[in-house]
Amino acid sequence: MKKGKPVASYAKMWPRELFDCRSGKLLLVKELPILSKPGVYVLYRDDVPYYVGKAKRLRSRLWSHANQAGSKYYNFWNYFSVFAVEDVTIRGQIEGYLIAAMPTANGAEPKIRKALLPAYIRKFLHRRLHEPLQLKPKAKAEP
Length: 143
Hints:
By secondary structure, the chain is of the alpha+beta class. The protein has helices at residues 58-67, 88-101, 119-130; strands at 9-15, 22-23, 26-27, 39-45, 48-55, 79-84.
C-alpha cells in the first residue's frame, strides 16, 4: 500500500443540481476533477445524512443516484459530500465508519465490533428519562 493521506481531498454539501447544470452541451459536473476519482460519498436530505456509499468513480455512481428515476434513493436526497480515497481497503473502512457514526437508510452493518452500553447504565437512563416528574407540593402560606 502506498504511504500518504488516506483521503486525498473532499467536497462538502454540494447540491444535487450539479448533475443537471450545463454550459452549452457540456455537463458542469464533468468539470469537477474530484468526481472522477474513487471514493466514499454521503447523500443528504437537506442537512441530514441519508445514505453512505462507495464508488470506483464517484461521478458515475452519483449520476446514477441523481438521474435514474428507478434508483432506490432517487427521490430522497438533495445534497452530497465526497471523499476521494484511492485505496480500496481504506475506502471500505471509511464507508463503514461513516455508516456506524451516522443514522442513515443504509441496511449494511459495518464490519466493526460495536460497543454496547452496559445493561445497568441503560436501566438507569431509562428510569431517569421515563419516570414521571415528582413535584414537591407547595408549602402553604401562613396568614
